[in-house]
Amino acid sequence: MPTNGLPDGRELVVLSAHAEELLTTDADAILRYLRPGTDVSAVAATLLRTRRLRRHRAVVRAASIAELVEGLQALSAGNEHPMVATSSETSTGKTVFVFPGQGNQWPSMGADAYDRSPVYRAHVDECVAAFAAAGHVSPLPYLTAHTGGGDWSHVEIQGAQFVHAVCVAHIWQSCGVTPDITVGHSLGEVAAAYVAGRITLTDAVAVVIARAKAVDRLQGDYRMAALGISVGEAEHLIATVEGWLEVSAVNSKSSVVVSGQRDAVTALVATASDRGLFARELGVNYPGHTTALEALHDDLSALLPKGQFGPAPVQFIGSVTGQAVPAGTGFAHYWYRNL
């Protein structure tokens, strides 16, 4: 029985028993069996094929017999080990894939994965072909750039962010980790909807391109910043800074994003930092999720594909509404609210 190896080449060796102390007995028995040259993947496959999964479980991640021996010895001795995880949970939880929005991207962020992971590379190439079919520039140069600089368009940057998120998700799926639920923030919602099977790749790429082209038409010099404070604290801080600013996203009770004019955002970050607060400008040069984007409604609506979300067994939670997005929901209104 084949096992799903991890991207770093390690195998998942699973031990299982009806009593916690028997995991130690099992680890000792496997240690006595192992010999130099034993195939770790064969050990992993044999255990999956011949042992029932019981309440108490341990997983050893190992790329070699030496790593497997080290992990099993730690398990036998009751010691913690970075490559060993144990659990006695009896209920099966749901797996959620969470996709980030724009702001944490950088040129070459996919270079290593594209070189080393056949799964990542194959899905990147599929996505790149979809951008080419749409008649737009490829996100591949941004993903695999050899320099951190460069003058990149919104289509290249947002396209690369979308492609990277989707292809990392495919790596997880190739390892047997599949989502029951997907959710995304801002641009990440497009990846979440696609990975959930709620929109096609063609439509997903069209949405990414539409968002990018719409913000390209916005006149002005803007920035966004993440702050480690509450909404109320952010609004109080905004009142102390000259220039236009708005709270544009609430990530948690102590994490918000503020958008506005470049000079005002720079001053806001400096003020927050001087007060010992977390503050960091994001790699975004438009005021996402603010009233400034209301002027783009007609342009965005004209650029978006004409379609609606389809049905799928994976639940797609919309950050626009905080609820599961029903099949049949139209693209135009939803993706405008997303921006």
Structure characterization notes:
Helices cover 42% and strands 17% of the residues. The chain is α+β, with helices and mostly antiparallel strands and 339 residues long. The protein folds into 3 domains: 11-87, 2-Layer Sandwich (Alpha-Beta Plaits), CATH 3.30.70.3290; 96-217 and 294-338, Malonyl-Coenzyme A Acyl Carrier Protein, domain 2, CATH 3.40.366; 222-285, Malonyl-CoA ACP transacylase, ACP-binding (Alpha-Beta Plaits, 2-Layer Sandwich), CATH 3.30.70.250. It has a 4-stranded mixed β-sheet with strand order 4-5-10-11, with helices on one face. A 4-stranded antiparallel β-sheet has the order 7-8-6-9, covered by helices on one side. The two termini are 46 Å apart. The model has no long low-confidence stretch (mean pLDDT 90).
List keywords for this structure.
Malonyl-Coenzyme A Acyl Carrier Protein, domain 2; alpha+beta; Alpha-Beta Plaits; 3 domains; 339 residues; 4-stranded antiparallel beta sheet
Question: Which SSEs are present, and which pair or pack?
Answer:
Blueprint: E1 11-17, H1 21-33, H2 40-50, E2 56-62, H3 65-77, E3 84-87, E4 96-99, H4 111-116, H5 118-133, H6 140-143, H7 154-174, E5 181-184, H8 188-195, H9 201-216, E6 222-227, H10 231-238, E7 245-252, E8 255-261, H11 262-274, E9 279-281, H12 297-303, E10 315-318, E11 323-324, H13 331-338
Parallel strand pairs: 4-5, 5-10
Antiparallel strand pairs: 1-2, 2-3, 6-8, 6-9, 7-8, 10-11
Helix pairs in contact: 1-3, 5-7, 7-8, 7-9, 8-9
